[in-house]
Amino acid sequence: MDNLPFDDTTDFTDADRGFVTALDPAVITAADGRVIWDNDGYAFLDAECPDTAHPSLWRQARLCARQGLYEVTEGIYQVRGLDLSNMTLVEGERGVVVIDPLISAETAAAALALYRSHRGDRPVTALIYTHSHGDHFGGARGVLPPGTEAGVPVLAPAGFLEHAVSENVYAGNAMTRRAMYMYGDSLPKAPDGQIGAGLGMTTSTGTVTLIPPTTDITHTGQEEVLDGVRIIFQLTPGTEAPAEMNFLFPDHRALCLAENATHTMHNIVTLRGAVVRDARIWSRYLDEAVELFGDATDVAFASHHWPTWGRENVRDFLLTQRDLYAYLHDQTLRLLNAGLTGPEIAETIELPPALEKCWHVRGYYGSLSHNVKAVYQRYLGWFDGNPAHLWEHPPVESAVRYVDCMGGADAVIAKARDYAGAGDLRFAATLLNHVVFADASNATARAELAGVYRRLGHGAENGPWRNFYLMGAKELEEGAGTIALETTSPEMAMALTVEQLIDSLAVRVDGPRAWDKELVIDLVITDGPPGPGPGAPPSRHRLTLRNGALTHRTAGPGADSWGPAGLTLTLTKPQLLSVLAGGGTAGIEQSGDASLLGELVSVLAEPDTSFPIVTP
C-alpha cells in the first residue's frame, strides 16, 4: 500500500467533472414509506480515514459516494449515487434514451426526475439494457410506467431475457441471500460498518421490474438509430455477464462500456455466486473495443463509477484493463500447470508493479485472491487432486472432530486468541469457526469469532470482503437476518418461459419425499410462448414425476406417441402462474385425476430465505 499514489487526485477531478446538481435529500422511499435508498448516510466519508477502514477502500468509497446529475458530454448525462449502478440519459430529437434504469423502480424514477428538473420534461423515447444483471434493468418501470411503453423500443444484447430471468430460477434464493452479505445493506453505514461495495455503495431495496426487450442486438457492428441518435454495437458475451454489449455514440464520440471496464478489478466469479466468467474472452473483447472504437472515442463511460476523458486516456484505460484480465487468466493457468492448487496460486501470484499501483485495477470489488481461484475452478473444478480432499466430512462433523483432537473448545479458543494476538487473524478465524460449528451455542467462541471477523473486515481493501466479514460478525451476535432485496416480481415471472417455470418447480422437489410417487401431468398453454402476439398456437408440456425427479418435455413431432397423461390442465400462462403461487384451479379446464396436482404440490419445498451462512 505504501506504493499507492494517494497524491494522484485525477479520479476525484473526473468524478466531479460535469456536476450539475445533487438530489437533496438523497433519501428515496417506497410507496409504503420504507426507505429503500439513503446516500446521505455516507456523509461520514468526508472525514479522514479511521483505523477501522483500509485507506484505499476509504478512498474508493469517497469517490463512489458522490451523487447527482452529471454531464458526460454534450447531450449525454449520468445520474450517479442513487443506486449501486449509474443511469445514463442520451438526449435525442424528441426526448431521451435511457441506459440501464438501476435496480429499483423508485430509484430510477428519482433519477429521471432529477434529470428532468434541469433538462426539461423530455419523454423517454427508448430504453437500453447493457447486460443481464438486475442492477441494469430492475428499475425499468420507474422510467416507463405501465401503459407508457407502447411504441418505445427496448434494446438488449441477444440472450438477455433468458439470462436475466434464469438466475432467479435455479439458484436465485441462495444468490440473493449471499448478496445480502456481499453488499451489506443491513449493516450500519458508519466508519466501522458499511462503507460501500467497491463497485458502488450498496443495493437499493425497492421494486424490481422488467420490460422485455423489443429489439435484440445480435452481432458486432450492428447499427441502430434511436430518436435520431446513432449507435454502433459490440457484443461481448461471456465477459462480466452472459449477455452484454458495449456501444459507441459516433456523433458524440462517446463509448459506453457497460460493466466490462470500470474503476476496479471486477469479479471472475462474484462472491454471491454465479457461473464462472471467462477472463480470457473478457480480455479479448476489451482489446477488440480499442480496435473498433479507440480512434472514434473522446470519452468512455460505464454503468458504474465515473467516466474517462481524452482519447489517449481512454485507450490506456482499456488496454490496462485488458492486460489485467489476460494476466489473471494466463498466470493462473501457468501455475496450475505447474501443480499449484487454487489457494496456493492465490498466495503466490502478484500483479506487475505497473498494474499494482494503478487505481482502476485495484481489488475493490473483485480481488486477486478470489479471482485466481475462480479461473482455477473454471478449468479444473472444485477438486484439487488430493484424495484427502475427495471425501471430507461436512463442516459440523469435521468441526466436532477437530475440536476433540485439539483438546476441547476452551483449548481451541485459547489457541485462537494467541494467533489473533500475534496478528494471524486468518488462522484464528479458522480455529474459532471449528468451535462454532462444533457447538453453535458456545457464546464465548461466537463473540471471539465476531471480533476476529470485524478486525478482518476493517483491514480489507475489498468492499465485498469487508461486508462479508462484518455481516458474519452480525450473524454471530444477532442471528441470521431476513432478505431485504426481493429480486422477483410479477413482470419477472411473466418473462419466464413455460419451460423455465417448470424448471423452477423441479428444483423445489424434495427428492426423498417424492421417491415413491409417479405421475404425469400435461399443461396445455393456450396463449403460446412469450411474445408471439395474439393468436399464437397452444403449446403442450408434459411433466413427469418419477424417482424423485420432475422432468418435462415440450410437444414436438413425436408427441403423438406420448400416451395419455394422468391429468391435463388447459390454461393461460397467467393462470399457470396463479396455480404455481397456490391460487387454485378455479376457471381452469381439467381432465383426468385432479388429485395429481395436489400430489405434486405436496412434495415441493419452500426455499429458506434466511438460512444461516457463518453458523450451522
UniProtKB/TrEMBL annotation:
Signal peptide feature range: none
Decide whether keyword Oxidoreductase is in the record.
Answer: no
The coenzyme or cofactor needed here is: Zn(2+)
Keywords, A to Z?
A: Hydrolase, Metal-binding, Zinc
Q: Which residues form the Metallo-beta-lactamase domain?
A: 84-304
Keyword flag Hydrolase: yes
* Pfam families hit by this protein: Alkyl_sulf_C, Alkyl_sulf_dimr, Lactamase_B
Recorded hits in PANTHER family, A to Z, give: ALKYL/ARYL-SULFATASE, ALKYL_ARYL-SULFATASE BDS1
**Similarity-based family:** Belongs to the metallo-beta-lactamase superfamily. Type III sulfatase family.
> What's the protein here called?
Alkyl sulfatase dimerization domain-containing protein
Native source organism of the sequence: Streptomyces stephensoniae
